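Hello,

Our lab assistant flagged a job as stuck in the queue for most of the afternoon. It eventually completed. Since we weren't sure the result was trustworthy after the delay, we are filing this so someone can double-check. Below is the sequence as submitted and the structure that was eventually returned. Let us know if re-running is recommended.
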Amino acid sequence: MSPLHNLPEETLILLLKKKNQQAFSYLYDNYAGALYGVVCRIVTSTEHAEEVIQDVFVKIWKHVDLFDADKGRLYTWMINIARNTALDYRKSKGVMNEMKNQPLSNIVNTQEEQDQSQAERSARADFIGFRNILDKLKPECRILIDMAYYKGYTQQEIADELNVPLGTVKTRTKAAFLQLQQLLKEYR
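-- returned structure --
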């Protein structure tokens, strides 16, 4: 067990801001699985997801000074970095061209692999119990969070997919976050 195991989050953050290697190793060991789960929901290739998770931890290391505890928890900040890095990767020209140039059989097989490994990715992402919290959300809220944060849809894409007005998506998303915030407070 790491000597950092029982440190308060504030102390861990101070150590990270001082570029303490042991604190960073602790952070990686304890959060890489959950962040990898977020990345895997957005980046479908395991090989690419591994590249993205490396980029995520490089960004965390380089930009830990930007973390503001008054705006949220460290884990939430890291999830946003992971999500945004994965979305940027998926939307990059190289990835888009690679996807366009695949034979149809590769695309079909990739979709089958995605469907089969969805449960595995959810299990990896849940080692901190976050899936249990999401399951307590109202179904319409859970769908929005899943589409926006795990699948990388924009609010407009969600509106198009669900065939509802954009304003409705924005209102429901706000409600979903308020409900999630309440559930997280109860979880502590």
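-- support follow-up --
The delay was a queue issue, not a problem with the job. The result is valid. Residues 104-127 have pLDDT under 50 and may be disordered. The chain has two domains: 1-127, 129-188.
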